[in-house]
Design goal:
By secondary structure, this protein is α+β, with helices and mostly antiparallel strands. It is 57% helix and 17% strand. A hairpin with a 2-residue loop joins β2 and β3.
Length: 381
Amino acid sequence: MTFFDLARRNVSRHWLRSVLAVTGIAIGVVAIATLGIMGNSINLMFNDMVSDVGDTITVSPATRSGTTELTKRQVDDITRAVGANRAIPFATTFDSVTVGETKSGAMIYAIPAKDIPFLLGMEAGAYPKDTGSGCVIGKTLAENSKDTGLKLGARATIGNETLRVVGVLEERGMGFDINPDSAIVVPYSWYSNHYGKDTYDQVIVKVRDVNDLDAVKEAIEQKMNRRENVVTVMDTRGILKEVFAAVDSITVFLMGIGAVSLIVAGVSILNVMLMSVTERIKEIGVLRSIGTRRSEVMRMFIYEALILGLVGAAIGGVLSFGTGYMMTAVFSGNPDYFFNPTSLLYIVFGMAFGIGMSAVSGIYPAWKAAHLNPIQALRHE
């Protein structure tokens, strides 16, 4: 076998190993970027679902109070305790609903008519009045009108009374107070007359200034629980912090999985560079013998590792756009989350991590090459 044949074989082997190393880096970048984008999309999705609750306090009967309802007197006491802030009492029940020949069931929220506009936005139609026989329905319920018959203008029979759907609410998303998207909202006066009740399930307190949240909570506690625990006062801001902390932990965990794949790719680059040093020992010996400094030899191999990392990171970054977009669309149902700057940053992070891992992987082979004995390197077969 001639020298040129041997050189050609070494170049082919080195090229193949380099391609595999670049592929590993690209896969690692795609993994860490895509998993990071997935976690961030979950966070954004949850943030959108939990709407308008950061300024909310919910007051409900205490577990050990012996009742699951709040009296009108207790609601009045809570209203006085919160001062200028808005206290909105409500009651809930589940009942069968008939529209024409279609029968279904739905959650019913009973809220004082004057408070409904303050709590819920209207997409179409008008708000119900205390004196009328109208109701409004949630966005999801309206979208499923083929199954339920409930839509704007429909007449819904509950029990022996008929209500006209006078409005469709804006989509509100999941909340810690009420979830009206799949529910019917009626004036409390109608609910009280229809079911013969004058009690409430909970009170929602909307605080004008979130900085006053703790003070309002304390005022309710002092007013209602001075002698014994009558009500449970819950600050949704605290719940949100815990939920988002959990979601952030999921994001970090997912990125950790992607980081493992990049570490594996880094090991492959380490192997490529070590093999490169082994195959080029004579070349290194020649360079050292003509006066090339150790630092220059080190830089040569580190640059080679960096080039592999840059190529792999660039390919991985391009692929991350496609995979990240698809994963966001599949798991969150809203591909727009992908274009959020906080999501796109994970692609940059993945590429930077891949390049950094490549540089680190090239340090030891470069050091080994720089410290070869020139005479022994020239004698190497």
